[in-house]
Amino acid sequence: MRKAKVAILGTGNIGQDLLAKVRRSAYLECVMFAGQRADSPGIIRATRMGIPTSIESVSAIVASDAQIVFD
Fold it and tell me: Considering the entire predicted model, what is its pTM?
């Protein structure tokens, strides 16, 4: 089964919680975790986990191959 590609816009507590749930999902794969601040704890954490990240916010989401976007 192919996983649906998702992007998460927002790297705060809610975005980080959503990322954790997506990572556990058998049906979803996070292809972009985007925000606005390079020093965001969420961006730092996702980068360490190997998740593609960006501080380009919506532009990064549009440029990704995500099929679903969580905001």
Answer: 0.94
